[in-house]
Design goal:
The complex is a heterodimer of chains A (121) and B (250). Chain A is mainly alpha-helical and 121 residues long. Chain A has five helices and no strands. Classes of the chains: A mainly alpha (121), B mainly alpha (250).
């Protein structure tokens, strides 16, 4: 019962997100808008109910289960992308290598910078 | 012997395709197969002592496709039956706001590096892939499918649907990206001599979404918290920027 109350909150925020997407013609999915609305609501309220925390935890822990139907599709629809696998593979592997290096370099730069700044204060 | 095998195969084919005829049985069949593959994959993953290069989602996907092939089930049919699971992705995306809110004190503590890194690194995570794929002649559908490769699955699905890509190709891309990002972060932090768990965690979440975040939690709670934060912020940022960027250039 407790968890269902949390699930109700999540569904309401999802519907609010979908409604804002349609009303404001946003290119962002309703789930993401709902998530941002929920985060801001929680920040304004400054606390979170047990039921919402439980329901979120439960859904997030079975996330892999929920995405499975989409994931297996790649085995059955791979033929549609034949001839493009070199482009796809390079984009994923080389692109990820570059973005990992960029992220680490930026973070190291700014974290040491801000710590230096803090020690001056 | 072959007669027996053929007979058995024909029986399975008839039986499974009769079950599929009724929409409600088709749903229960699809959910049973998915649930079975998911639980078996989690057990196998633990039995193999949690290998970084083989996350549970990959094991589950292999098992599930094996089930579908063995039962001669049509993928589209299975997908229709599994609607009951897929429909929960919307509320689950909303649920990601909860850990994000719970991580808020980390943002306050390290807001400056986050503020400077995120707006550069998150668009680049998509940008590098888009540039490389375009240079190698990928179709617009492929580019729309792999662009949100560093974004957590429920958010990424929303983005790809908005951009007109293939959800299946996106899912495969997410899997590959998650695994290689985890391996690259491991190697690069050793090479760059970075030992700050806040940096390692944030980089894992930003580039490797849920797969990287799972790895970060193995390193420790600090790395895990920063990975969740990196994953959540990258998801939101990419979801807000990418569709507009595609609108401008596409």
């Amino acid at each position: 019962m407790v968890m269902l109350r949390g699930f109700l909150v999540l569904s309401v925020f999802f519907l609010l997100g979908e409604a804002s997407r349609i009303v404001f013609a946003l290119p962002v999915s309703g789930g993401v808008i709902g998530m941002i609305l929920l985060t801001f609501t929680l920040m304004v309220r400054g606390n979170i109910s047990d039921s919402l925390a439980q329901a979120s935890q439960a859904l997030i822990s079975v996330l892999v289960l929920l995405i499975m139907p989409g994931v297996v599709g790649i085995f059955f629809q791979a033929g549609e992308f034949s001839g493009q696998w070199l482009a796809i593979g390079s984009a994923l592997v080389v692109g990820t290598l570059l973005s990992v290096l960029t992220t680490l370099w930026l973070l190291r730069h700014f974290v040491t910078d801000s710590q230096k700044g803090a020690s001056h204060d | 012997m072959t007669d027996l095998m053929d007979g058995l195969a024909a029986l399975i084919h008839t039986l499974s395709n009769t079950l599929v005829d009724s929409p409600s049985t088709n749903s229960v069949l699809a959910i049973t197969l998915t649930l079975g593959a998911f639980l078996a994959a989690n057990r196998l993953f633990r039995a193999m002592r949690s290998p970084v290069w083989l996350p549970p989602v990959l094991i589950a996907a292999c098992l599930l496709s094996a089930f579908l092939v063995l039962l001669t089930l049509d993928y589209q049919n299975y997908r229709d039956g599994a609607q009951w699971l897929t429909v929960l992705l919307g509320p689950t995306t909303v649920a990601l706001g909860v850990p994000l809110y719970q991580q808020m004190h980390h943002i306050r503590a390290l807001w400056r590096p986050i503020l400077f890194t995120l707006p550069i690194a998150a668009p680049l995570a998509a940008g590098y892939a888009i540039l490389i794929a375009t240079a190698l002649g990928a179709s617009p559908e492929v580019i729309a499918s792999i662009a949100p490769k560093s974004v957590t699955a429920p958010i990424a699905m929303g983005i790809t649907e908005q951009l007109g890509g293939s959800v299946s190709l996106l899912m495969g891309s997410l899997l590959i990206t998650g695994v290689v990002a985890t391996v690259f972060v491991d190697l690069a932090t050793r090479w760059m001599k970075i030992s700050d768990h806040r940096i390692i965690g944030f980089a894992l979440g930003l580039n490797g979404h849920a797969v990287g975040t799972a790895r970060a939690f193995e390193l420790g709670p600090t790395a895990g918290a920063f990975a969740s934060l990196g994953m959540g912020l990258t998801g939101i940022f990419t979801a807000l920027i990418l569709p507009f960027a595609f609108g401008l250039f596409g």
